[in-house]
Amino acid sequence: MTSSAVTIGFSELIDLIAGMYDIPETRKPALRARLKHLKSKDFPPGSKLGRRGRVAYRLDDIARLAVVFALTTAFVPPDVAVNTVTIHWLELKEKIRHAAGTSPDTLNNHGTVYFSANALTDMNNSVTTDSRGAMSISTPSDDRGSGVIKLEISVITKLLIFHLSKILEQDETGTADQIAGM
Fold first, then answer.
1. Which of 60, 78, 83, 142 lies at a 20 to 30 A Cα distance from 69?
2. In angstroms, how far is the first alpha carbon of the chain from the final one?
3. Among 46, 122, 120, 126, which residue's Cα sits nearest to residue 79?
4. What is the pTM for the complete model shown?
């Protein structure tokens, strides 16, 4: 099965994201609503409609959503998270692909992305964005606390591989290879 052939449905996506981010059953309706809201805003862009009008999420879509949810768990507003992932997707995707293709022994040494955010600097949890409503990518030397969000792509990728393998009912190596090839 090629990576482009891998798709999951909406219910499977909910289970995947809930598993990755430890979302309890009682919070799944809120997760469902958030995913429907993102889809209404055409995110991820170009998600395919499957048979009977159901959305089929591809690996690329799943990975984008995993990163958006990682950012929102770091208190980044959802719209800023979506804009940031959309604008920086090629770089983020390459880091995910690299992390998926890296042996588990060295995985933790790769795949960290730093975003200039000035997050949590005031009571409104404001995040500094550019004119496109996205955070900019910064450098590790900018990692001075509240002005930077450190996103561990390698950890997100590990979680994605683990939970997607369960949904696809295949071993983790096969899932990692498919993600590395997306």
1. 142
2. 12
3. 126
4. 0.80
Those residues with Cβ within 8 angstroms of residue 123's Cβ, 6 or more apart along the chain or in another chain: none
DSSP structure class, residue 13: H
DSSP helix/strand/coil, 113: strand
Angstrom distance (rounded) from CA 179 to CA 53: 26
Supply the angle between the helices 78-87 and 59-73 in degrees, to the nearest 10. 130
Task: Select the more confidently predicted residue: 136 or 57.
Answer: 57
**Tell me: the pLDDT tens digits for 65-98?**
999 999 888 888 888 889 989 988 998 898 888 8
b/e burial code for range 30-40 (CB count within 10 A of at least 16 → b): ebbebbeebbe
